[in-house]
Specification:
Two copies of one chain form a homodimer.
Chain A (H helix, E strand, L loop, with lengths): L2 H10 L24 H7 L5 H4 L10 E4 L2 E5 L5 E4 L5 H6 L7 H4 L1 E2 L7 E2 L6 E9 L1 H5 L7 H19 L5 E8 L4 E10 L1 E7 L2 H4 L3 H4 L11 E7 L13 E2 L18 E6 L10 H29 L4 H30 L2 H17 L4 H19 L2 H12 L3 H14 L16 H10 L6 H16 L8 H7 L3 H13 L6 H9 L2 H5 L4 H44 L13 E6 L3 E4 L2 E3 L2 E3 H7 L10 H9 L6 E2 L9 E8 L11 E3 L5 E8 L17 E5 H11 L3 H6 L6
């Protein structure tokens, strides 16, 4: 390693020397917060930033991962607050025709009435977060490509296995700054979770899909769960004998008013962002990936709708897939619009150019630049087949019968290895899931539609330049539209995989038996499999190379930012992060101003009496009564009583996974629960644009009012140390 | 006439005694403005209110009726400013494939390049407005029902004929306060109108249907025309020898800045409002008329779409009708939503109850109340058959072939009378239009769809209670679904009216010849005609009774309002009116605030490159350049140059027909041109709700900037006495 590279690496570890960070952008590791103490204080935080860095201290030890998203302990008896939509599976699991908890909501009158969650539902408390970069990279050093990838993978698996030797813990390795650093994350896994309080769906999900991503918003998207443990205080499966878990700390719900401009911070588990990707990746995303995704999904939607136009049964079979395609398309278009609005290609390109120019002035820049150039070459290589890769992914993932045939062949192939060495997704424990998928294919399939979809996608594949072609695909599907039609007709006339029982029995067959099958689709899948495996290998080799090479880029970026007096947070990766900012209005477009707080008046305005705007009668009555007590915001509304707020908007930095994140005030009190972003912020996974990035929260005063006046639960208010009204 | 009634009538004529009127609501006759001088002054008007009352003085004599809407003279040489959409027919008339003025806009380089409008296009200058109530009602006194109606009708026709004896004038009688007063309106009719300056459609109609009724808005909806007269100064048909008309006055476009809160007033020709209808009519409109209109149109749309689902040609034939149905439905739903939001049933009911309670305290209330009760009885009688009347109107108006057959029979029937006594719409001068309709039926018709539509509507008719049935309809269509199907099948199998030539020859036939026709649809129409004529008679008799009786209600309302210190403007009836108010923001719903001025930034934000958001390149370039000169609003935008405004919002009281109305500032200078309302105000034809009623205007600074910097016309700026940049 050259001097320069060592120097850059050293810089990356000395964030504490940094000055002012960019305002409000940032999903900080708690351990970084002391490094940006000055900015945190300047923004209005009244606590000690270094307390926030300690996972074992309040408030961080009160923040949990729940149902794949975020939440927090809000009482000393293991009460967990998260979103209604995060706990939705638990509510659904406990609903029956004669007791519809989705529709009616639920209030457990006492602990004995708290209802067990589905057995796979988890509350995870992060108890350890240790840097193990040297251990993870020890074997990888000197390797390249697939070798580098496999070395990191093995070291990761070993570290996880060792960590999980202690029962009751789930462990994982988090990759920070794209292979620069690795952390071992250790989480206490609470397996007995129970439903305590849920509002009716028409409150928790008020506005439904129509209001999804929309501001102004009026949802009471919260639910209270409780974590239980065995009598020994250790994680346990559900048992009536279990006792409430005593968390090391819990958050106190605030009883103060909050208003525009107030400091706010949030902790949670954001899923994935791409903010530090290279300029060429930004350009590819905006100039090719998103537009071509829009075109791909539009084409698939049109094809399915046209093929199913005269067949009601086919239309029903594909309804869910089409709906999902439309969501994907809408989201891609929103992301594209947002990134264009933010001029993201130019902004990132200029920023990278400035970094490279700065790097030029540093000693020993050549080695760094060589690594960056090598990373760029790997990316370029991937982009050379991007059209093909997109089409083949759609062909193999968005069909039902062809996908089933490939899955059956792949499973047989993997079964030839020891279970631990099988590809993820094809291990013994995955077979239940695969069986489910094969069964489900039945309800989602019509031969004419699948053939039309394949014809549509493969016609595009056939039109690609020769360099993007794959021999096995050419053989199986032909190289002209005429051949394609004949091949597809023969394939679907010659398969019995449309029969569910046959699919399931094929799944049990070994590779040798399958090889003798005369089923045309199974034969086609067998011919395609080597190509699929080969492309997967190539993809892992590229991933390995990028894992090896990207740290040069990241370290240069971190050092460059340091020269600008700015800290760098790692891109989101489902680990615990903190962001801070304030309650913020928004001007989404010329002539329109969004107020940062909504009131119950908006519930009445939106109410139509039909889903998703069917406010329950008790809520409408309580609003009409106007008895808001201690939960009213005095600065809003026309009456001297003030107005009852519902949701509010902050400029906090969030992404998917931050659902249920607790929002804290300057004193660390819980003022809201994060549950969504605005539509204009859909592009924030790539670029944080302070003009448009907002997060949407349920105001805790709305929760308190509902629990005090509308669907009363005085015992829970008391448990949370909150006033009864 | 009782003493009380005379007293109330006297009060109605003494509006000058009134105190404060309700703020901002009101479409005032210019003659009323001195009566509300105090409020006008208090609102910020700096001129003399009594000057506004004079039609022969500025500014009123500069306000014109143009192309059915409103406009104003803006130079001493007859330059008329109105909306792009009001002048659209003129632009279209002058467009050719090789010279697309709709797409490209138009700038006449000099007067010789000004392009003649379509020959029926008119600019009308109101020169007389005289109360002739006594003359109109002289013969009607003592009569009732149809007799009253015919007496008013004859007196009206006589007054118009006498007034129009002077060439160059068009006259009409305006009914104010529902039969309380009648005015003879005399208008100079300028018949040679020419196109001078039009922006490209992508500016004039930026946002198109998508932005229709929408705020924030970004359309440059203006066009300049010029009125010409003969060399003798009198109105004349187009001739190259004509000379520009010299108006008695013109408005000066303002060069000052305008901002939120500034005084604004507007003059124009609002079409029709229903604000002073009785409480029962409000209840009927909101509780029955609008919901049932929504259901009726939704049913017709569904029927046509379903019947045409498998027939592409039928779908094309009905596309325009379905689009128009969808517009009607959307508007009805918007009106319904708005009236519910404003709680209009309750508000009007409480207001009327208060009026009646007040009336109780007056001397001689009995006679007034008797008339009001009689009016209510007439309304009740009409409502008793409202379902039937709605269905029969749809059956006879929304079909193509059946309607053609009825039209042919009706025309033959009317031809039996002297031309002057024929029903309006069936006179000799109407036959060109009828021929056109009969030809058009060809392109808008498919037998299966028309039969399905009739089956759908008549099934509802058949299900009505007996009291609503009409013998002739029962005979022709049967009284059960089975009979209906058989009758419709026979009718459409036995008609040749699908043949255009046959329709046109049938139109020429006299009643005797038609009576011998064995065409099934013509026979059906002949059977239905007596019922249609009878219902029409009944309707005119009701109209006559209401004309006789409503004045009692209106006079009571006016007197009641006087007791509250408020003046009453008559409901709109396409006569010249004035409203005043201010530039106003709006809070359309919880959490959303609309700024009252938009800027060119919004054009860039909305630009997609595709209609209706395809801003022309010169406009985008000029915006990017940011050279806004004297037309920038210094208080807006981020730059020190300020921002270029586009449109603005006022709380002025407007309705359809106010398109092109000049908007004046406190000094009477022209600051904007009205062109639309916001969606929330769609219900304002029934109720003015100050929270939601806004009018949308083109800021004259945007027009000036376009004419100075984007599509320059320095000669026109000079003519309007405006700076060159």
């Amino acid at each position: 390693m050259s001097t320069m590279r060592r120097r850059v690496l050293a810089l990356s570890l000395s964030l504490s020397m940094l000055g002012a960070a960019q305002a409000d952008e940032g999903m900080w590791m708690p351990s970084q917060l002391p490094d940006i103490a000055k900015q945190l204080k300047a923004a209005g935080f009244k606590g000690r930033p270094r307390d926030l860095a300690e996972l074992a201290r309040p408030p961080m030890n009160a923040v949990v991962k729940v149902g794949g998203a975020s939440g927090a302990f809000v009482s000393g008896d293991g009460l967990v607050l998260t979103n209604h939509h995060v706990a939705f599976g638990v509510i659904q699991y406990n609903s029956k025709p004669e007791r519809d908890l989705i529709r009616d909501g639920y209030i457990a009158a006492d602990r004995s009435a708290e209802l067990p969650a589905n057995p796979d539902y988890r509350v995870l408390v992060t108890t350890g977060f240790d840097r193990i970069t040297d251990r993870i990279l020890a074997d990888a050093k000197g390797k390249q490509g697939r070798g580098y990838y496999d070395a990191v993978d093995s070291a990761t698996k070993a570290a996880v296995a060792e960590c999980e030797r202690e029962p009751g813990y789930r462990c994982s390795v988090a990759n920070m700054y794209y292979g620069t650093d690795f952390y071992l994350v250790r989480q206490l896994e609470l397996r007995d979770v129970r439903l305590v309080y849920a509002p009716p769906n028409d409150i928790g999900n008020y506005g439904g899909e129509v209001d999804n991503f929309v501001w102004p918003r009026h949802a009471g998207d919260f639910t209270l769960l409780r974590a239980y443990v065995g009598k020994d205080g250790k994680p346990a499966d559900y048992s009536p004998d279990n006792v409430p878990y005593t968390p090391p700390a819990h958050l106190q719900v605030s009883t103060r008013n909050v208003k525009e401009g107030d400091f706010a911070m949030l902790a949670g588990y954001p899923g994935v962002t791409f903010r530090h990707r290279m300029a060429s990746e930004f350009a590819n995303q905006i100039q090719w990936q998103l537009p071509s995704r829009v075109a791909l999904y539009q084409g698939m939607i049109d094809t399915i709708e046209s093929a199913g136009a005269k067949d009601e049964a086919a239309r029903v079979s594909y309804a869910a897939q089409v709906r999902s395609f439309k969501n994907t398309l809408k989201r891609a278009q929103g992301e594209l619009d947002g990134l264009r609005r933010s001029d993201a290609v130019r902004v990132r390109r200029d920023d990278e150019a400035a970094m490279l120019a700065w790097l030029e002035q540093q000693r020993d820049a050549a080695a760094i630049k060589a690594d960056i150039a090598s990373a760029q070459a790997v990316l370029d290589q991937g982009m050379a087949t991007r059209e093909r890769d997109q089409l083949i992914a759609a062909i193999t993932a968005q069909t039902q019968l062809l996908r089933s045939a490939i899955t059956v062949q792949r499973l047989a192939h993997e079964r030839g290895k020891p279970d631990a060495q099988r590809e993820a997704g094809y291990q013994q424990r995955d077979e239940v899931l695969i069986t489910g998928q094969l069964k489900q294919a039945q309800r989602r399939y019509a031969p004419a539609v699948e053939k039309a979809l394949l014809a549509h996608l493969l016609a595009q594949y056939q039109a690609l330049p020769a360099a993007q072609h794959v021999a096995e695909f050419d053989t199986v599907f032909g190289t002209t539209p005429v051949q394609l039609k004949a091949k597809l007709d023969a394939m679907y006339a010659g398969t019995k995989l449309g029969d569910e029982a046959l699919r399931l029995s094929a799944m049990q067959a070994d590779a040798a038996t399958l090889a003798t099958s005369n089923d045309a689709l199974l034969q086609a899948a067998a011919s395609l499999l080597p190509a699929i495996l080969r492309m997967e290998d190539e993809s892992k080799a590229s991933a390995g190379e990028l894992l090896r090479l990207r740290p040069a880029y990241m370290k240069a970026l971190i050092a460059f930012r340091e020269s600008q007096g700015r800290a760098v947070y790692p891109d989101a990766n489902s680990t615990l992060r903190v962001s801070y900012g304030r309650i913020s209005a928004m001007d989404p477009r010329d002539g329109v101003h969004y107020q940062p707080l909504t009131t119950v008046q908006g519930i009445v305005e939106k109410h139509t009496g039909e889903e998703p705007f069917n406010a329950p009668r008790p809520l409408l009555d309580a609003i009409a009564k106007g008895d808001f007590g201690s939960t009213a915001e005095p600065s809003l509304g026309n009456s001297s009583r003030g107005a009852q707020t519902v949701d509010f908007l902050t400029n906090l930095d969030t992404t998917g996974g931050n659902s249920g994140s607790p929002v804290l005030d300057a004193q660390g009190k819980l003022i809201a629960l994060n549950f969504d972003s605005n539509w204009e912020a859909v592009s924030a996974s790539w670029m944080f644009d302070p003009r448009y990035k907002r997060a949407i929260h349920v105001d805790m005063r709305y929760m308190r009012w509902l629990m005090a006046k509308v669907y009363p639960a005085p015992h829970l208010l008391k448990e949370m140390n909150l006033p009864a009204e």
